[in-house]
């Protein structure tokens, strides 16, 4: 018996099912990337847990096809991994170093290969020196300036020119049979919303400054709200007066904003498939339309369509299902009604814990009245619209 659902992005390279119904969106993005002019930056926007990484995984598979598509070379960067136990400056240097190294491996015969490889080593060496300087109490400002200052020798400005020459020669090298089909480089920048918002904004700015190059397409998994938080020090709290500055910053970096289609997810089918996975529902039978409609309504009014929130809910259901099976007095009536009721109660517990607590104290809902309401709220809802 399966008892839990792990919270991992869908790995489409292992032929995992497209349960949320996002394949059409991935295919549309694939067509856009194949035909777009460059440089191009696509922002995959959505709240944490909305499926951004799953969409990017599917897009990677779509672009590679049955066999590796040599026309589009892919580079994947997980910013969260680069930020672990690092300062913001180290994180920036580490990310740029990783991208530089991955690009350099595309074409060892390129005349800029040695210079680009050496630059990547210097970036990682600089990150190490910066870390050592910080650890010993010595300011690492000089190291950071040497790498990030556009006026310094071997700086970002120099790196950008080296990258531009390397990529141009790689794409336009018709004599190299191993790489002469490459037309674009596609960079997937994941988990920006897992690092500090101000650091995420710095990463966005740096990537824009360095990699706004011909033949390059960047796909950034980022929530606009993270950008808002990251720009707070620069613009202050978001309000009607400065909203344009926040939006202008975002629009300058992102040429194609793509919102995760939470509203179009096939939520009820997704939930029911997961409930079958944990043996809450029979795996070889499908419930009737009325049952499915009830599941959909309960989800919409409680958990919503965020895949991560749904997985957490299903794990709660799984635990309750195990407890229920150990109770000899349970399931005495209509099994479908019983499961719907249990499903509703757990949704209520997760989404509205205060109402669930009230259900535990006073489970006879038919007896709820104005007197009970006043006992709980002390009449605050009459004066406080937000509280109401």
Walkthrough of the structure:
The protein has 388 residues and is α/β, with parallel strands linked by helices. Helix content is 54%, strand content 8%. The chain has a 5-stranded parallel beta sheet with strand order 2-3-4-1-5, sandwiched between helices. α8 links the parallel β3 (184-190) and β4. α4 packs parallel to α8, α5 packs antiparallel against α6 (141-148) and α13 (289-300) runs parallel beside α15 (335-351). The protein is elongated.
Number of strands: 5
Number of helices: 17
SSE order in H/E notation? HEHEHHHHHEHEHHHEHHHHHH
Instruction: Bin the helical content.
Output: 40-55%
**Percent strand:** 5-15%
- Nearest-angstrom radius of gyration? 26 Å
Low-confidence stretches: 130-141
Structural class: alpha/beta
Which structural traits does this protein have?
8% strand, five-stranded parallel sheet, 17 helices, 388 residues, 5 strands, alpha/beta
Could you write a compact summary of the structure shown?
The chain is built from 17 helices and 5 strands. It is of the alpha/beta class.
Topology at a glance:
Blueprint: H1 23-35, E1 40-45, H2 52-64, E2 72-78, H3 79-83, H4 88-104, H5 113-135, H6 141-148, H7 156-172, E3 184-190, H8 197-211, E4 216-221, H9 224-230, H10 232-235, H11 243-253, E5 256-259, H12 267-277, H13 289-300, H14 307-325, H15 335-351, H16 353-361, H17 370-377
Parallel strand pairs: 1-4, 1-5, 2-3, 3-4
Helix pairs in contact: 1-2, 4-5, 4-8, 5-6, 5-7, 8-9, 12-13, 13-15, 14-15, 15-16
């Amino acid at each position: 018996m399966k008892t839990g659902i792990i919270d991992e992005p869908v790995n489409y390279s292992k032929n995992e099912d497209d349960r949320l119904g996002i394949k059409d969106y991935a295919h549309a993005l694939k067509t856009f990337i194949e035909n777009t002019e460059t440089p191009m930056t696509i922002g995959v926007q959505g709240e944490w847990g909305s499926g951004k990484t799953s969409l990017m995984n599917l897009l990677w598979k779509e672009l590679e096809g049955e066999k590796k598509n040599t026309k589009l070379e892919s580079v994947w960067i997980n910013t969260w991994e680069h930020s672990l136990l690092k300062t913001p400056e180290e994180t920036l240097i580490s990310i740029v170093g990783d991208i530089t190294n991955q690009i350099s491996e595309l074409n060892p015969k390129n005349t800029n290969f040695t210079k680009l490889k050496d630059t990547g080593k210097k970036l990682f060496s600089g990150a190490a020196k910066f870390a050592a300087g910080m650890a010993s109490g010595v300011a690492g400002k000089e190291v950071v300036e040497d790498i990030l200052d556009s006026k310094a020798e071997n700086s970002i400005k120099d790196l950008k020119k080296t990258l531009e020459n390397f990529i141009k020669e790689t794409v336009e090298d018709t004599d190299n049979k191993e790489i002469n089909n490459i037309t674009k480089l596609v960079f997937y920048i994941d988990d920006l919303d897992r690092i500090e918002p101000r650091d995420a904004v710095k990463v966005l700015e740096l990537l824009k400054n360095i990699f706004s190059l011909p033949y390059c397409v960047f796909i950034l998994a980022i929530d606009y709200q993270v950008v808002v938080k990251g720009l707070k020090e620069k613009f202050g709290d978001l309000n009607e007066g400065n909203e344009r500055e926040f939006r202008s910053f975002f629009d300058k970096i992102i040429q194609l904003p793509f919102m995760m289609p939470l509203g179009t997810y096939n939520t009820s089918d997704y939930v029911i498939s997961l409930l079958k996975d944990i043996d809450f529902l029979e795996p070889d039978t499908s419930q009737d339309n009325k049952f499915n409609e009830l599941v959909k309504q309960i989800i919409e009014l409680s958990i919503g369509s965020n895949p991560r929130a749904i997985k957490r809910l299903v794990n709660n259901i799984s635990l309750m299902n195990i407890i229920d099976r150990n109770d000899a007095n349970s399931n005495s009536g209509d099994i479908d009604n019983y499961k719907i009721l249990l499903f509703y109660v757990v949704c209520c517990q997760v989404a509205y814990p205060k109402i669930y607590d009230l259900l535990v104290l006073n489970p006879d809902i038919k007896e709820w009245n104005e007197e009970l309401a006043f006992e709980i709220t002390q009449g605050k809802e009459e004066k406080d619209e937000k509280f109401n």
